[in-house]
Amino acid sequence: MRKYLLSIVLLISTLSFSQQASDYFPDQTGYKWNYKVIPLDSINNEIDSLTYSRADSFATTINFMGKLSDLVLSKSAPINLINVMPYIDSSYFSFENADGYQYFQISNLGNLISVLDTIGIDSSFLGVIQSFESWYSVFRFGQPIGSEFTIFSKDTTISINGNNFPLRFQYLGKRLADETIQVASGSYLCKKFLLSTVVSYIILPPVVFELFRLETTKWISQNVWLVQEITPSKTIDLTYLGYGSFTIPGLKTELLPGVTGIKYHDPVPTGFTLSDNYPNPFNPSTNINFSIPNSGKVSLKVFDIIGREVAVLAEEQRTAGNYSVTFNPGNLSSGVYFCILSFEGKQLTRKMIYLK
Questions:
Q1: Has residue 157 got a pLDDT over 60?
Q2: Fewer CB within 10 Å: N-end or C-end of the chain?
Q3: Residue 213, domain CATH
Q4: Residue 19: count of CB within 10 angstroms of its CB
């Protein structure tokens, strides 16, 4: 009987303290985060003179690539300009039980792309990088502390300065012990995750040699989401492959005090603008941001390289404001496309490259 009662107590304890991944994300759209971003030098000292601002906004909940997802729009700028800049980046999150999913985009590999550009990677590899894009379980709140998990692992061969290299690309996660941290906006009890991008040389399967590892630590608090993020500077030594050594600068991002949890409105734009789509090149979709200074009819269309209209993204009356539209080419073939925004007799054009 005692053993039976103990089992019930343990079960109730487990149910009481288990948390859903969604508990860590704000539950209402309009939530806004303000961050201070501080570059780090080669030995990870903060470079205060290069500090800039980042603003994120929980824009909406939509169906995206097969999942009900929370769309977060982002923008970065010097501190004195952040409030007048339009949102140009987007991230998608989805939550199922104890797992937080993120739609992995090429922009998530920013530091890796910097490394590959530095060593002269063949531009055709961009298509390989884009093949990584998909939903992945990144934040595993139920993961045992200290255990590493594989988010994704892909093997491929790339060409660098005419030489072919069989490589393995991995995105790894590890849940670290919970930690209470103090940032400018206050003190937070956080779940802590270490995320690592690893590139290894495949000598002869299953023998692999790790070339380099880029690490980011994220602190996530309940109902707030990201409180702090640190990507240390990393010196990459590839002299043994004939590509020298170089340093990738680091970044420290921390939450600032500010208005959160209420509907946020961008300032009314003062001009008619069409930003470069992001990402570009893209696959499977890209985001197009534009602004109009007053109410009027807006036309946003996509044309192929010979001038045929292939998509209508907007053809309607809209009020003054900043807008973001997602273009998914579906069954269209790879190639160059043109996005044309028309408003009050004026036109703006941006070139987009779709890679299947």
A1: yes
A2: N
A3: 2.40.360
A4: 13
Q: Encode pLDDT of 72-93 as tens digits.
A: 999 998 988 888 888 888 899 9
C-beta neighbour count of 192 within 10 angstroms: 18
Q: Which residue has the higher pLDDT, 3 or 178?
A: 178
Q: What is the pLDDT of residue 87?
A: 87
What CATH number is attached to the domain comprising 305? 2.60.40.1930
Phi then psi for 24, rounded to 5 degrees? -95, -5
The pTM of this model reads 0.67
Q: Which residues contact 239 (CB under 8 A, 6 or more apart)?
A: 245
Same domain assignment for residues 298 and 251 = no
Q: Which of 106, 35, 26, 111 is nearest to 70 (CA)?
A: 26
Number of domains in the chain: 2
pLDDT at residue 12 in the model? 35
Band (119; pLDDT cuts 50, 70, 90): low
Residue 250 sits in the same domain as residue 151 = yes
- CB-based contact 354:332 (threshold 8 Å): yes
Cα 15 to Cα 98: distance, rounded to the nearest angstrom: 12
Q: Which domain holds residue 24?
A: 20-255
Beta bridge partner(s), residue 57: 32, 73
Task: Sort 245 into a burial class: Cβ within 10 Å, 0-12 / 13-18 / 19+.
Answer: exposed
229 and 290 part of one domain? no
CA-CA distances (angstroms) from residue 30 to 38, 88, 92, 97, 175?
A: 26, 17, 15, 24, 29
Q: Quick check: is 13 in a domain? A: no
What pLDDT sits at residue 194? 98
Does the pLDDT of residue 108 top 70, yes or no?
no
Burial of 140 (0-12, 13-18, 19+ CB in 10 A): buried
